[in-house]
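Teaching soon. Got one?

===
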Amino acid sequence: MKKDTLCLHAVRDSTHTTGAVCTPIYQSATFARSAVGESTGYDYSRLQNPTREHVEKLVAALEGGTDGLAFSSGMAAIMAMMELFSPGDEIIVSDDIYGGSVRFFDTVSKKNGIIIHYTNTSDLLSIKTYITNRTKGIFIETPTNPMMKITDIKAVKQLTLGRGILLMVDNTFLTPYFLRPIELGADIVMHSGTKYLAGHNDTLAGFLVTANTELGEKLKFIHKTVGAVLSPFDSYLVTRGIKTLAIRMEKSQQNAGVIAAWLKQHPKVKKVYYAGLPEHPDIEVSKKQGSGFGAMISFSVDSAQTAHNILSRTKIILFAESLGGVETLMTYPVTQTHSYIPEAQRTARGIDDKLLRLSVGIENVDDLIHDLEKAMK
C-alpha cells in the first residue's frame, strides 16, 4: 500500500466482530479472566489496552518498525527512551532541539548520571569529536527546532556501526509521511504525537517505534513499569487524526512553501528558516532522505517590537504553544518553547527576541498571508 492508504488501512482492528469501521474505545482499566492461566490478551490497561494497541501498531506500520509504544506525552516517551541508558553513559544530542528536551537532558538525565554532549549534528566531523567508547546514543531532530537544520541520518548511522551506539531520531516535524528514519538506519524513532499525528490540537500523546524486537521488548518493560501510557480515548483521537495525516501534511506543506517565499521578500523579515527553500544549506540532504520538507517555518524580523506586534495583531494565526495542528500557530521561542535555555546559549543559536516560529496549518494560504501582512504594517 502507498503511504496515504496506509494511514487508513495499515492496521485492522481484530478485537471485535461487529464490523465497526472505527476502532472502539475500550474505556476499561481492567479485563476479566475466565479461569486461572487463561487471558484474552488484555488484563490491565497499563499493560495493554485494545484501543492503545491499535494506534501503536498503526504508528509502527507507518514508520516501518517492529514495535510501537504510545505514551501520555512526547516527553514521557523521551523519559522512557532514556531509561535504556545507565550512569556514565554518554549521549550526543543535536544542539538545536526543543527546549523541553534540553530541560529533561540537563536536569533529569544529568541527575541520573548520563553525560550529554550537544553538537551540530548536521556536521559529521563535529559528531566524531564526541564519540568515545562510552558513547551509547546519538539523539537528533531533523529538521531541528527552531532553526530547521537538517541531519543526514544515513551518514550518522555509519558513524555508529560496530560501536553499540543507538541512533534515536525525533521525527515529530516530518512524520512518517515525509520521512522514515528506520529505513535510513535509526534504531528508535520518537514522536510527540500531540503534533502532526493527532493533528487537531486536542490531545497529548507520545510514541516510540523500534527497528527491532529486542529494543521493543526492553522499552515495553519500561513502558509498563513506569506507566506513562496513553489513555484509550486519547489513543482513539490519535488514530482518528492519522486518517487524515496525508492530506493535512500535503496541504500544510503547500501553504508553508508559499508563505516562506512571501516572507523572504518582506522588508521587515531579515531571515527565513525553512527546509524547502532553495538556498537552505542542506536542501539536498532533505531531498535525498525524505519526500517532503514539512510545514514548520522560523523567521527573524527587524526588531523585538515587530515580533511583538505580529504576535498581538494576527487574527487568524493564533499565538500559542505547540505545532502540527490544522490551525496555524505562531510561537515566540525566546519566552515559550526555549525559555529554559540560558540567554547566552539561545543567542548563540540564533534564538533571540526577533525570532518567530510558524506552524502552518490548512487554512487558505491567501488568508494567512493577508493576516501576516496586516500584522506587519
